[in-house]
């Protein structure tokens, strides 16, 4: 079960971190054109932190307080690395992959 | 020194990081490899096929008797015998014994079915890299002190790095490759450091804590008058130690003790420790595997050596502070991690090694002289050590694996020859920068390392019957890892050539001034 | 310590080198002394079982040493750094002397 939970965490963390990344002026300009509007930046920030919070809740619920935080941090680091890699080399892919990660997370959640 | 905190921490970060960077790159890389210590050992003993390991109490008792019989002949007057019992995936008996407090331990590996040395090639396997991680191949006391001191300095470097990183949040995802080389290396250094920052802080602190009582014995001095064994007994970490009485005694049969212990705990029995085996006051400790959890706590059952009666059972959870210490050690060694989580830990270890490596390179790039000026001696020294360490250590590890496959199986002192290959290749790689230009040195050593890693799966396929596509997942993943490392190092060699050449071209244009390190 | 990449060896005077050496020695020995004294003292006086007190005091000591080292380098000058470390060391040393006098070494649990 643990590998599935890790994949779930990865998907949620990736989506959340991607949102936070795109809410920043510099990275928004890398992926789209120009800076985000204030509303968009706010929406992305909220979505981003929500994604990270949900992944923490999922990790702790499914793996307990002993292992949950450890796995959550591991998945977060892995997801962060992916986001940085994508935004640096393929910025246009960040939004599509983040959006695809959400239904994937749902599928994995059902399997768990 | 009337500068702000940020600037003084920047200075501290740069210098403390440099001074220990080379040692700590080695500690980080071998530590990361040690996450797969058992797998590496398996790969390096290809003759050892998977076989069903009987772990019933009776089977373990028999194995223990075989071990004790061997030890009675090999080390009857030892202070302690340490018998690692067979487990699934590890069918051999691992014996160690301590004859005196200063001498190194004696070792032997036995096949429990035959009572003799197993028919696998002599090798130190993954244990060599594991021991190198905290001893650097030096005598244990010296090596551990050096690693411990470096770890404390790295902790200071990390904390000062956090203080000095002005835009740690807004630069979290930033990796600029299109600006100056120095900016690129700085971003890479920041990125690899910050992305896995919780891991980095945890791994260094828990590493130091793993040897806490060696580095900081003053609590034992003040509260226990130096009686460390009493501390362990009171903390319920081991049964009370009985001093030898000086009269010879006979050890009761251990098989009944093993069977009795196995019945007392649901965990697998891992190890048997016999204290003062030849003495009348001998004691036996049955040590179990850690229960599934973060902490590195082993339940134990203590026996009287002469009669075989149970004297002490340590089966419950320790108290908060002791548990915290055990949990920190558990986090460092990650025994609890299943395959998926282990990959993530490994990845974080790679990021940590990359943080150290990019930091070392950044240090030298930031101090490149302007057009036409000669490089000062200090910079040349740093650059030479950088190549020798960052590119040389991977080459040495590949050579170690390669030697395992290429050396004759029945060569005398084979294990020492493998270790010799590791150090010989490393030494050669470290000397190369003295003969070549800086760019050529990076290309050459990274290229050699890539070639060596590429050669490992080939040597494996040629000399053993067990190659990656033969159905054994261990061999598949090992080959895949070797190829991935070869690709990574080869890519590095190619880029090193281009990057340094570009920098040299830029350096010959009219200077526009290089950004100062603390303005970056 | 604004050291840009342009500082050359001959621009750095011996006074500066002496100050750096002084801070390094103070940080290393003073930092370790601070950590060691705090470990010894708190192992005796923490209101926990003896083995617990030793564990807690020892675990915390490494963080104490790390912060002590940072304080030495963040201080405005070497004499100020000496004060930053010297005062806590004196306090802990005095406390330890008192604790040993009151409890004696190896107070039973």
How many β-strand stretches of chain A? 0
Determine the structural class of chain C based on helices, strands and strand pairing. Answer: mainly alpha
Which percent range fits the helix content of chain A? over 70%
Biggest beta sheet attributes of chain C: none
User: For the terminal residues of chain C, how far apart are their CA atoms?
Assistant: 49 Å
Number of helices of chain A: 4
DSSP helix fraction of chain C: over 70%
| Percent range for β-strand residues of chain A | under 5%
Oligomer: heterotrimer
Largest sheet of chain A: none
Shape of chain C: elongated
Number of helices of chain C: 3
Number of domains of chain C: 1
Q: Any idea what the shape of chain A is?
A: elongated
Radius of gyration of chain C: 18 Å
Instruction: Give unreliable regions of chain A as ranges.
Output: none
Uncertain stretches of chain C: 1-8
What would you note in describing this structure?
The complex is a heterotrimer of chains A (112), B (520) and C (109). Chain A has 112 residues and is mainly alpha-helical. Chain A has helices at residues 2-22, 25-31, 38-89, 94-111. The model of chain A has no long low-confidence stretch (mean pLDDT 91). Chain B has a 7-stranded antiparallel beta sheet, with helices on one face. The radius of gyration of chain B is 26 Å and the shape is globular. Chain B has helices at residues 5-34, 37-43, 57-74, 125-135, 140-164, 181-195, 197-210, 212-215, 218-224, 228-234, 254-262, 320-333, 339-365, 377-406, 414-435, 438-463, 473-507, and strands spanning 80-84, 93-98, 106-110, 269-275, 283-288, 300-304, 310-314. Chain B has 3 domains: 1-47 and 122-227 and 328-366, no CATH class; 57-119 and 238-317, no CATH class; 371-520, no CATH class. Chain C is elongated and about 55 Å long. The longest helix of chain C has 32 residues, at 14-45. Chain C has one domain (17-103). Mean pLDDT of chain C is 87; it is low at 1-8. Chains B and C meet through helix 1, helix 5, helix 7, helix 8 and helix 9 of B and helix 1, helix 2 and helix 3 of C.
């Amino acid at each position: 079960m643990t590998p599935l939970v890790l994949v779930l965490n990865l998907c949620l963390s990736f989506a959340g971190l991607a949102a936070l990344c795109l809410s920043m002026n510099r990275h928004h300009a890398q992926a789209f054109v120009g800076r985000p509007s204030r509303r968009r930046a706010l929406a992305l920030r909220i979505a981003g932190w929500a994604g990270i919070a949900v992944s923490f809740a999922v990790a702790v619920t499914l793996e307990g307080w002993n292992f949950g935080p450890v796995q959550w941090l591991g998945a977060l680091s892995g997801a962060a690395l992916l986001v940085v890699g994508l935004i640096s080399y393929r910025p246009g892919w960040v939004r599509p992959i983040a959006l695809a990660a959400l239904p994937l997370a749902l599928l994995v959640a059902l399997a768990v | 020194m009337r500068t702000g905190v940020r600037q003084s921490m920047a200075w501290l970060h740069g210098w403390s990081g440099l001074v220990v960077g080379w040692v700590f790159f080695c500690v980080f890389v071998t530590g990361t490899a040690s996450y797969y210590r058992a797998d590496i050992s398996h790969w390096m003993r290809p003759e050892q096929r998977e076989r069903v390991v009987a772990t019933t109490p009776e089977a373990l008792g028999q194995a223990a008797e075989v071990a004790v019989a061997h030890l009675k002949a090999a080390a009857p007057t030892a202070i302690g015998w340490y018998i690692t019992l067979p487990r699934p995936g590890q069918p051999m008996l691992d014996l160690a014994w301590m004859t005196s407090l200063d001498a190194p331990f004696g070792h032997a590996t036995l096949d429990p079915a035959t009572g003799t040395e197993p028919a696998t090639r002599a090798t130190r396997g993954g244990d060599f890299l594991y021991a190198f991680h905290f001893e650097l191949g030096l005598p244990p006391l010296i090596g551990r002190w050096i690693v411990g001191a470096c770890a404390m300095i790295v902790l200071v470097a990390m904390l000062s790095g956090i203080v000095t990183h002005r835009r740690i949040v807004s630069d979290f995802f930033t990796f600029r490759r299109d600006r100056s080389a120095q900016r690129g290396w700085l971003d890479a250094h920041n990125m690899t450091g910050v992305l896995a920052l919780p891991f980095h802080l945890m791994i260094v602190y828990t590493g130091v804590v793993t040897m806490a009582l060696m580095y900081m014995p003053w609590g034992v001095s003040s509260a226990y008058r130096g009686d460390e064994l009493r501390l362990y007994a009171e903390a319920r970490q081991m049964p009370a130690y009985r001093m030898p009485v000086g009269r010879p005694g006979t050890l009761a049969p251990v098989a009944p003790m093993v069977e009795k212990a196995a019945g007392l705990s649901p965990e697998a029995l891992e190890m048997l420790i016999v204290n003062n085996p030849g003495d009348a006051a001998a004691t036996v400790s049955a040590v179990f595997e850690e229960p599934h959890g973060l902490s590195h706590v082993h339940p134990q059952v203590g026996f009287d050596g002469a009669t075989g009666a149970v004297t002490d059972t340590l089966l419950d959870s320790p108290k908060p502070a002791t548990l915290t210490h055990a949990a920190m050690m558990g986090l460092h060694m990650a025994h609890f991690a299943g395959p998926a989580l282990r990959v993530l830990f490994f990845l974080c270890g790679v990021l940590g090694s990359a943080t150290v490596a990019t930091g070392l390179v950044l240090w030298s790039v930031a101090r490149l002289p302007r057009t036409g000026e000669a490089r000062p001696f200090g910079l040349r020294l740093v650059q030479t050590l950088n190549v020798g360490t960052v590119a040389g250590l991977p080459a040495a590890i590949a050579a170690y694996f390669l030697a395992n496959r290429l050396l004759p199986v029945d060569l005398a002192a084979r294990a020492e020859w493998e270790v010799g290959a590791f150090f010989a290749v490393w030494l050669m790689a470290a000397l190369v920068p003295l003969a070549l230009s800086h760019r050529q040195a990076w290309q050459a050593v990274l290229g050699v390392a890539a070639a060596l890693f590429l050669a490992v799966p080939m040597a494996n396929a040629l000399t053993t019957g067990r190659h990656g596509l033969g159905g054994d997942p261990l061999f598949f993943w090992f080959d895949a890892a070797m190829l991935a490392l070869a690709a990574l190092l080869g890519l590095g060699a190619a880029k090193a050539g281009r990057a340094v050449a570009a920098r040299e071209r830029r350096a010959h244009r009219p200077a526009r001034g290089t950004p100062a390190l603390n303005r970056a | 310590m604004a050291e840009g990449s342009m500082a050359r060896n001959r621009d750095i005077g011996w006074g500066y080198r002496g100050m750096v050496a002084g801070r390094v020695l103070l940080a290393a020995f003073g930092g370790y002394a601070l950590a060691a004294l705090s470990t010894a003292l708190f192992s005796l006086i923490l209101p926990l079982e003896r083995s617990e007190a030793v564990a807690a005091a020892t675990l915390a000591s490494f963080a104490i040493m790390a912060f002590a080292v940072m304080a030495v380098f963040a201080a405005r000058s070497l004499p100020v750094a000496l004060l930053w470390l010297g005062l806590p060391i004196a306090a802990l040393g005095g406390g330890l002397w008192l604790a040993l006098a009151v409890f004696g070494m190896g107070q039973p649990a």
